[in-house]
Design brief:
The chain has 9 helices and 7 strands; from the N terminus they run E-H-E-H-E-H-E-H-E-H-E-H-H-E-H-H. The chain has helices spanning about 15-25, 40-50, 65-80, 100-110, 125-145, 160-165, 175-185, 215-240, 240-250, and strands at about 5-10, 30-35, 55-60, 85-90, 115-120, 155-160, 190-200. Helix 5 runs parallel beside helix 8 (about 215-240) and helix 8 packs across helix 9 (about 240-250). A 7-stranded mixed sheet has the order 3-2-1-4-6-5-7, sandwiched between helices.
């Protein structure tokens, strides 16, 4: 039997983190919020959620990045006896009505990575769409298929914790979502891709982006260089070297 909770990494989302937590709780999910060194407003909002019994809150003393926050969330989920985690961003962009669909799919496919792929409305910036297309092009090359990971960047997905325990994911910031998905697929994890509506909130609604184009695009470029290089090395080892061919035949 699988047990699914939601983990919500947040960094300064004081106006949206509560609605995200309430939405997940209303859909019968336990919620773990990882406060990634937020300022006073978001820290207070998170602590109030815990006081109201809506979430378990783990606060990091310093901002360490989305990936680092998610890893802390995975550890906490294991401590609480959960087998799977639904990762949800705290910015309120994702259609939480899909949460039960994702959970039901995870129960039918308990060893699979359940990935969302975005269905955008008119609020989606064109530059974001182009950036995602480029990233997904490279991810398809890195895993050898366009169908295994339809979108590598979306922060709405279910991880089987048992599969994550076998990984060594280095990235601690924005590159984390890409790296962990690629590594899971390379490690033999099956995937199920499900659509999810995405709406970009404006500032008046509390929408905030921590994406830094220069810094984060450099991180992405380094990550794809690393993944492509290791992918070529894996292919060479398994397909060309005599020992690699024999080992692959035995698996």
């Amino acid at each position: 039997m699988i047990r699914v909770c939601a983990i919500v990494p947040t960094y300064d989302n004081p106006r949206t983190v509560r609605s995200v937590a309430e939405g997940l709780r209303s859909r019968d999910l336990d919620v773990i919020i990882i406060d990634d060194g937020s300022g006073p407003d978001c820290e207070q909002a998170c602590q109030q959620l815990q006081a109201d019994g809506l979430a378990t809150v783990v606060r990091l003393a310093n901002n360490s990045g989305k990936g680092a926050a998610c890893k802390v969330g995975f550890t906490k989920a294991r401590e609480l006896g959960f087998t799977h985690v639904l990762q949800v961003d705290a910015d309120g962009q994702h259609d939480q009505d899909q949460a039960p669909v994702f959970v039901a799919t995870a129960k039918q496919n308990p060893t699979a990575l359940i990935l969302g792929y975005p269905i955008y409305d008119e609020t989606a910036p064109r530059a974001r769409k182009i950036a995602r297309w480029i990233t997904n092009f490279w991810v398809a090359a890195e895993v050898g298929s366009r169908n295994k990971i339809r979108d590598a960047m979306i922060g709405f997905r279910i991880y089987p914790l048992a599969a994550i325990e076998r990984l060594h994911v280095i990235g601690d910031r924005m590159e984390f979502d890409i790296e962990i998905a690629v590594q899971l697929v390379r490690g033999g994890c099956d995937t199920v891709n499900l659509p999810i509506k995405v709406r970009y909130l404006d500032k008046a609604e509390g929408g905030i982006s921590h994406f830094r184009p220069l810094r984060d695009n450099l991180r992405f470029a380094w990550l794809h260089s690393k993944l492509c290089t290791t992918g070529c090395m894996r292919w060479t080892y398994r397909k060309l070297w005599p020992f690699g061919r024999r080992k692959a035949a035995l698996q």
